[in-house]
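FAQ

Q: What does a record look like?
A: Structure on top, sequence underneath. For example:
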């Protein structure tokens, strides 16, 4: 297990920006909102605590080049909501728990989290569907005998389900996923062509 901690200077370097658009947005925040944002600069903050990596972990086994907020904000491929596309749709596939009550509680928690994290966007639930309704390719993993459904097929399914006013559509499932025959599994996958993605819980 590894705990990732960053110094105050590292956080400021990663998060501060001289971009006039971002500076203007920050200056429009009220005092309380600015205090909340400034908590990100405090290494010991209760709101922005250290990240614990459990080994083996995807991040440690699949290292990626670092990206600070300025690089993220300036990315020409970054998607932003528009007045007519401000809704996040959540599509669940298969059961998310041992009982219907557990599944409903999980969806309720996830919806609340999305509303808080993506403040300003609407979060809407689509009717849950069984795996059979997706018509996705599947396989049974030999060593575990667990059902796995093909990730690319799920993205195609989501493309057909995506409403016109959607900023994005997200699918969640407790079923194992695989992107290609040579892979054991995948935790999640996205398509930036029409901005839909799924996440394996």
């Amino acid at each position: 297990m590894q705990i990732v901690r960053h110094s105050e200077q590292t956080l400021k370097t990663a998060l501060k920006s001289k971009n006039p658009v971002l500076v203007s947005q920050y200056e429009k925040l009220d005092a309380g909102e600015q205090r909340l944002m400034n908590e990100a600069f405090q290494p010991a903050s209760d709101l922005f605590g250290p990240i614990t990596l459990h080994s083996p972990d995807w991040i440690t086994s699949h290292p990626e080049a670092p990206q600070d907020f300025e690089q993220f904000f300036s990315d020409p491929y970054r998607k932003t909501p528009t007045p007519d596309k401000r809704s996040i749709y959540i599509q669940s596939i298969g059961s998310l728990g041992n009982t219907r009550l557990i599944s409903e509680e999980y969806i309720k928690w996830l919806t609340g989290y999305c509303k808080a994290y993506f403040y300003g966007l609407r979060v809407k639930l689509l009717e849950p569907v069984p795996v059979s309704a997706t018509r996705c390719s599947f396989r049974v993993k030999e060593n575990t005998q667990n059902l796995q459904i093909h990730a690319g097929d799920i993205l195609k399914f989501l493309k057909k389900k995506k409403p016109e006013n959607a900023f994005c559509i997200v699918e969640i499932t407790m079923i194992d996923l695989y992107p290609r025959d040579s892979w054991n599994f995948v935790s999640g996958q996205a398509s930036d062509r029409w901005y839909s993605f799924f996440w394996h819980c």
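Q: Is there anything notable about this one?
A: Residues 64 and 167 are 26 Å apart (CA to CA).
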